[in-house]
Amino acid sequence: MDKSRLIGLLERVERSAFEIPWTYEMLDGSLDETARIGLTDVQGRLLEIKNLNDSTLSVDSEVDISGFYLARLGLEYTELLRIAIRPEFRRRGIARTLMSDLAGYGRVLLEVSTNNPAARALYESAGYTTIARRKSYYSDGSDCIVMEKP
Question: Which residues pair with 44 in a beta bridge?
């Protein structure tokens, strides 16, 4: 699978999962050498991506994905940039599967809106704790909660 096909799969999930989805260009711009991606198929199985810089990714080109995470690996921590599950596959443990895979990268930081209690509950149940709050951070005026899992 080439990078543009991968981005197309991510974009499809984005459009179904969010009112304001990331665009193809935003996803493409996030896929650099520090990017880490976790994908799940429609049965909720974790799929592997070995190397984003390789022109042939290890995911079957015919796969249909139910969810993904996009993270950036840093020197001191990994930052979760995005996690998305298609609505018809929610409440099946797929987000937990993705969060478990993400935990393999060590210390993880993420940001979540105070207007997203479902995501906050997921992160808390996965062992994340609040380390900071940014007042009126999002365009809707909601605060940003910064969470960490050591």
Answer: none
Q: pTM of whole model > 0.85?
A: yes
CA 132 to chain centre: 20
- Kindly list the domain boundaries of the chain, sorted by start residue: 3-106, 109-150
Alpha carbon separation from 147 to 15, 51, 123, 137 (Å, rounded): 25, 27, 8, 15
Q: What local confidence, expressed as pLDDT, does residue 57 receive? A: 53
- CA-to-CA distance for 122 and 99, rounded, in angstroms? 9
**3-106 topology per CATH:** Aminopeptidase (3.40.630)
Separation between Cα atoms, residue 64 and residue 9, nearest integer Å: 8
Structure-block tokens of residue 13: 């999930």
Q: Residue type at 2? A: D
User: What residues in the chain have per-residue pLDDT under 50?
Assistant: 55-56
Between the alpha carbon of residue 76 and those of residues 31, 69, 79, 107, the distances in Å are 19, 19, 10, 8
List, as one string, the DSSP characters of 40-109: EETT--EE----TTSSS-SS-TT--EEEEEEEEE-SS-EEEEEEEE-GGGTTSSHHHHHHHHHGGGSSEE
